[in-house]
Design a protein that fits this description.
- This protein folds into 4 domains: about 100 residues, ADC-like domains (N-terminal domain of TfIIb), CATH 2.20.25.90; about 250 residues, Rossmann fold; about 200 residues, Dimethylsulfoxide Reductase, domain 2 (3-Layer(aba) Sandwich); about 130 residues, Barwin-like endoglucanases.
- It is of the alpha/beta class.
- The protein contains 23 helices and 26 strands.
- Strands 20, 21, 22, 23, 24, 25 and 26 form a 7-stranded mixed β-sheet that branches. It has a 6-stranded mixed β-sheet with strand order 6-5-15-14-13-7. Strands 1-2-3-4 form a 4-stranded antiparallel β-sheet.
- Strand 1 and strand 2 form a beta hairpin.
- The chain is globular.
- The structure holds ligand MGD (2 copies), iron/sulfur cluster and molybdenum atom.
- Iron/sulfur cluster binds next to helix 2.
Length: about 775
C-alpha cells in the first residue's frame, strides 16, 4: 500500500474509533464493580492487548482484545495461536458489537405481563436471586428434584449446571447442544474409535489428506477458523474433494465430484460404498486385520447394498457413485472421511449414519495416519476441586429416558423428553426450568410445543445477555456478563498442535451484568448448597494451570497461550482403542447389547408428500445461530435469509427470484415472509434456508422479523433410538404466495423402497 493512502486510511480508522468511543461513552454507564484484573501487554495505536478466547461460536479461537481507555476497540486473533494466529472470522471480529449492543440485558428483570409478552420490571440482584432460589426450593420440596430441569449450552452455563446436579436432577441437557447437534455423531465415534472424534472439535486431518469426503458438512458456510484453514490447505496441497449434499453448497463449488443426493439417503450411499470396496478388495486389509473387530459382520451386512440398489434410492447415477468411491479409495489411507458435526438430521438412523462414516474410515485404514482421523493429545491441566459442584445423579434415578434411549444418560436428558414431561406430567411432572446460554424457542424443534410446556410451568428463569425469545418467556432474567467481560476457564485443546489458553476479561462488566460464576455462587448460597469454595474464577484457573506448570501471570507473559507437542499419528501395528474391546469396532458390541443395530442398516426416512418439499437448513458464514442476528456489523452484512427453491420447480409455479413468500408445513405452521432465491443449486424435492433468522423478540431491534426462522416450521421430529436427539429435517413445506397456497411440483421420482410421508389431514392457515 502506498504510504499516503495508508496514512489516510489510518486517519479515517482513528476517526471511526474515536466516534465509537464517543458514542459508547454517551450511551453506556460502565459498571462499578470489576471482577477481572487481566495483565496488559503493550499494543499498537496505544491500545493494550489482552489475550482471551472468543465465544462468538464454540470453536473458541484464541484472541487478543485491544483496549484503549477502558474500552474495547478491536479484536484480533492471538498471534501465538497455532490454530488461527492473527485471524478471526467476521463474527469473532464483531464481538465488540455484542459487548456494546444497546439492546443488551442490563439489569435483573422480573416478568410483569404474560409469559411471552416481554414485559418486565427492573429488580435488584438480591430480589432476583432470592426469587429463583425460593422457587427452586418450593418445586423441589413439592415434586422432588426431578421436577427441576436445566437447558444449557456454552461456557456461561457450566457452573450453574453443577447446582442442578447437586440438587439431584438428571434433567439437564449438557454442552454443546448435545441433543440438537453433535449427539449422534459423538456417540457413534465414541463407540467406534473410543473417543469423540466429532464433538466440540472434529479430529480430522484435512490438511494432510489426499482426498476429503464431506457429507453435508458445509465448510466455508460453516466457519470455524482453523477447520476452514486446514481444509483449504488440504485442497491447496492437491487433495481431491467429494461433496455429498442435496444443495450446491460452498464446498460443492470446490469439489472434484459433487453428488446431489436425495435428502435422508446418505446411509444407503455409505453402505453401498462399503460393499463395493470390500468386494473389490479396495480396503486396507492389514489395518483391518491388526486393529479392527467386526469386519465379517460388516461384510455380511452390506452384501445386499449394491451401487445399483443405492442409485435410485439416493437419486444418483451409478457411475458417479462409483467414480466417487474410487477417488476416495485411491487416496487410502490418507483419506479424510469427515465425521460431521451437526448430526441431528432425521432421528432414526442418525447415529448409524455417523457410525457408517467411522466404518468407512476404518476400512480405508484412515485412522491415526496423516490425512485421516487423528488421535487427540491430551493437554495436562490440574483438576480444580473448588470448581466442583454436584455429583453425577445417583442410579437408579427416576430417569426420563433410560428406558427409551440407552446411550443418552451419559449426557443428561433429551430436550424433547423434558418438554414432553413438562407438558404431560408423564412419567413424572417437570415444573421448573432454568435456562442458560441457549435460545430454546429457536433451537429445539417444535417451539409451539415448547411454549405450551412453558405455560404450564410453576417457574422459569434464564441467564441471558440479550432479550431473546427465551428471555421473553422467562419469569426472571439474570443478566450475564459476556465472554469479553469475564474469566471462564482454562481451555486446553488437544489438536494437531495442542495448546492451552485462558479466557479472561478484556473489559469490566457493563451495567449490572455479572459473571456466570458469581451468579452460580450467589444462587448456591441461597440454596444452602455446599459448592464453589473458591472466591473467584481466577482461583480455579490458577489451580488448573498448576497442572501445566503455569500461573496466570506466566501465561500472560507468554502471550496468553502455550503450545505442546502433539502425538496425533500412531504406530498402526499396535493401536490401542479406548473401546469395550480395545480395538476399533466396525460392529459395535455395546449397541448389540441394547438390541440396537451393531452394524448400520439403511432405514429410509419418508419422502415428501405430493405438493410438498423437504425443509433443510444450514449456516451463513457471518452468523452463529440466533445469537449474532442483532449484532450491528453482522446484521449489516447479512440481514435476512433467503429461501432456496429449484429453478425448474419455481418456473412451474410461476415464482421468480426475489419474490416474497411464506412457508406452510404439514401441520399448518407458517413461517414469517422470506425472499426467494431461485436456483438450479438445489434439488426440486427440497427447499433450503439459513438457520437463526426470523427473530420474534421486538426488543432485538435489529433482528426482529428479519428473514424467517426454520424452527417455526419444524413441528415434527423423531428421536434417535440410540441417544434420544430430536431431528430437524423431518418436516415438509408448501409455499404461500399472498393468499394462495402453491403445491411444489413433484419432479424427483420416488422409488418404491422409500415410503412417502402420509399427511394425516391437510392442515392449513395455522399458527405462525
Ligand atoms: N458461520 C457459522 N458456522 C458454524 C455455525 C454457525 O452457526 N455459523 N455453527 C457451528 C455448529 S455448532 C455446527 S454443529 C456446525 C454445523 O455445520 P455442519 O456440521 O456442516 O452441518 P450439516 O448439517 O452437516 O451441513 C449443512 C448442509 O447439509 C446439507 N444437507 C441437508 N440435508 C442433507 C442430507 O440429507 N444429506 C446430505 N448429505 N446433506 C444434507 C445442507 O444442504 C447444508 O449444505 O456449524 C458450525 N459452524
Ligand atoms: N432449526 C434448527 N435448529 C437448530 C439448528 C439448526 O441449524 N436449525 N442448529 C442446532 C445446533 S448445531 C446447535 S449447536 C444449537 C445451538 O443452539 P443455541 O445454543 O440455543 O444457539 P443460539 O441461538 O445461539 O442461542 C444461544 C443463546 O445464548 C445466549 N448467549 C450467548 N452468549 C451468552 C453468554 O455468555 N451468557 C449467557 N447467559 N447467554 C449467552 C444468546 O444470546 C442466545 O440467546 O441449535 C441447534 N438447533
Ligand atoms: S470461528 Fe470465528 S466466531 Fe468462532 S471462535 Fe473463531 S473467531 Fe470466534
Ligand atoms: Mo452445533
Amino acid at each position: 500500500m502506498k504510504r499516503r493512502k495508508f496514512l489516510k486510511l489510518s486517519a479515517s480508522a482513528c476517526a471511526a474509533l474515536a466516534a465509537l468511543e464517543l458514542q459508547g461513552n454517551s450511551m453506556f454507564r460502565p459498571a462499578a464493580a470489576s471482577t477481572g484484573k487481566p495483565a496488559m501487554l503493550p499494543g499498537s495505536l496505544g491500545a493494550k492487548d489482552i489475550p482471551s478466547v472468543c465465544e462468538m461460536c464454540f470453536w473458541r479461537c484464541p484472541i487478543v482484545g485491544k483496549v484503549k481507555n477502558g474500552r474495547l476497540v478491536k479484536i484480533e486473533g492471538n498471534p501465538k495461536s497455532p490454530a488461527n494466529s492473527t485471524t478471526v472470522c467476521a463474527r469473532g471480529n464483531s464481538g465488540i458489537q455484542l459487548l456494546y449492543d444497546p439492546d443488551r440485558m442490563k439489569y435483573p428483570l422480573k416478568r410483569t405481563g404474560e409469559r411471552g409478552e416481554g414485559k418486565w420490571a427492573r429488580i435488584s440482584w438480591d430480589e432476583a436471586l432470592d426469587e429463583v432460589a425460593h422457587n427452586i426450593k418450593k418445586v423441589k420440596d413439592k415434586y422432588g428434584p426431578h421436577a427441576l430441569a436445566y437447558f444449557d449450552h456454552g461456557a456461561s452455563a457450566e457452573f450453574m449446571r453443577g447446582i442442578f446436579k447437586d440438587l439431584g436432577t438428571e434433567n439437564y441437557t449438557n454442552e454443546p447442544a448435545f441433543f440438537q447437534c453433535v449427539g449422534p455423531a459423538a456417540l457413534a465415534f465414541l463407540k467406534t474409535v473410543g473417543y469423540v472424534a466429532s464433538g466440540t472439535r472434529q479430529y480430522i486431518d484435512m490438511k494432510n489428506a489426499k482426498a476429503i469426503l464431506l457429507m453435508g458438512s458445509h465448510i466455508g458456510e460453516n466457519v470455524h477458523v482453523s477447520h476452514v484453514r486446514e481444509y483449504m490447505e488440504g485442497l491447496q496441497n492437491g487433495a481431491k474433494l467429494v461433496v455429498v449434499d442435496p444443495r450446491f453448497s460452498a464446498p460443492a463449488g470446490k469439489a472434484d465430484l459433487y453428488l446431489p443426493i436425495r435428502p435422508g439417503t446418505d446411509t444407503a450411499l455409505l453402505l453401498a460404498w462399503m460393499n463395493f470396496i470390500i468386494e473389490k478388495g479396495l480396503y486396507d486389509r492389514e489395518f483391518v486385520q491388526n486393529n479392527c473387530i467386526g469386519f465379517d459382520s460388516v461384510k455380511e451386512a452390506v452384501k445386499k447394498y449394491t451401487i445399483e440398489w443405492a442409485a435410485p434410492i439416493c437419486d444418483l447415477k451409478p457411475d458417479e457413485i462409483k467414480k466417487a468411491i474410487l477417488m476416495l479409495a485411491e487416496a487410502r489411507p490418507h483419506v479424510a472421511i469427515h465425521p460431521g458435526r451437526h448430526a441431528t438430521w432425521y432421528g432414526r438412523g442418525d447415529t448409524s449414519r455417523h457410525q457408517a462414516l467411522g466404518i468407512l474410515a476404518g476400512l480405508f485404514g484412515a485412522v491415526g495416519v496423516p490425512g485421516g482421523l487423528y488421535f487427540p493429545t491430551p493437554v495436562k491441566k490440574a483438576h480444580s476441586e473448588c470448581a466442583e459442584c454436584g455429583e453425577e445423579p445417583e442410579t437408579p434415578v427416576k430417569s426420563l429416558q433410560d428406558d427409551y434411549y440407552p446411550f443418552a444418560s451419559t449426557f443428561g436428558s433429551p430436550t424433547s423428553k423434558i418438554i414432553e414431561a413438562s407438558l404431560t406430567g408423564d412419567p413424572y411432572p417437570v415444573r421448573l426450568w432454568g435456562i442458560n446460554g441457549v435460545n430454546i424457542l429457536q433451537t429445539i424443534p417444535n417451539p409451539y410445543h415448547t411454549m405450551d410446556a412453558i405455560r404450564k410451568l410453576d417457574f422459569i428463569f434464564c441467564e441471558e445477555i440479550m432479550p431473546t425469545e427465551t428471555a421473553m418467556w422467562s419469569d426472571i432474567v439474570l443478566p450475564g456478563a459476556t465472554y469479553l467481560e469475564r474469566f471462564d476457564a482454562v481451555y486446553a485443546y488437544d489438536l494437531l498442535t495442542p495448546y492451552l489458553t485462558v479466557r479472561q476479561p478484556v473489559v469490566k462488566p457493563m451495567f449490572e451484568a455479572r459473571s456466570p460464576f458469581w451468579i452460580a455462587r450467589e444462587l448456591a448460597k441461597r440454596l444452602d448448597i455446599d459448592c464453589f469454595k473458591c472466591n473467584d474464577v481466577e482461583e480455579i484457573i490458577e489451580e488448573e494451570l498448576k497442572g501445566a506448570g503455569l500461573t496466570l501471570k506466566s501465561l500472560d507473559e507468554n502471550g496468553g497461550l502455550v503450545k505442546f507437542k502433539a502425538n496425533p499419528y500412531r504406530d498402526r501395528k499396535d493401536l490401542k482403542f479406548n473401546t469395550s474391546s480395545g480395538k476399533m469396532e466396525l460392529s459395535v458390541e455395546d449397541f448389540e447389547d441394547e438390541d440396537l443395530d451393531p452394524v448400520p442398516e439403511f432405514i429410509p426416512t419418508p419422502a415428501p408428500p405430493e405438493g410438498y418439499a423437504r425443509l433443510i437448513y444450514g449456516r451463513v458464514p457471518v452468523h452463529t445461530f440466533t445469537r449474532t442476528m442483532n449484532n450491528q456489523w453482522l446484521n449489516n452484512e447479512w440481514p435476512e435469509n433467503q429461501l432456496w427453491l429449484n429453478d425448474k420447480a419455481a418456473g412451474k409455479m410461476g415464482l421468480k427470484d426475489g419474490e416474497e413468500v411464506q412457508l406452510e408445513n404439514q401441520d399448518g405452521a407458517r413461517s414469517l415472509p422470506i425472499k426467494l432465491k431461485v436456483t438450479p443449486g438445489i434439488r426440486p424435492d427440497a427447499v433450503y434456508m439459513a438457520h437463526g433468522y426470523g427473530s420474534r423478540s421486538k426488543q432485538l431491534t435489529k433482528a426482529y422479523e428479519k428473514g424467517a426462522s426454520d424452527q417455526f416450521v419444524i413441528t415434527m421430529y423423531e428421536n434417535d433410538p440410540f441417544m434420544g436427539a430430536s431431528s430437524h429435517r423431518t418436516n415438509f413445506v408448501r409455499i404461500v404466495k399472498g393468499k394462495k397456497i402453491l403445491d411444489i411440483p413433484d419432479l424427483c421420482p420416488v422409488p418404491p423402497q422409500i415410503p412417502r410421508f402420509q399427511l394425516k389431514h391437510a392442515k392449513t392457515g395455522g399458527k405462525r
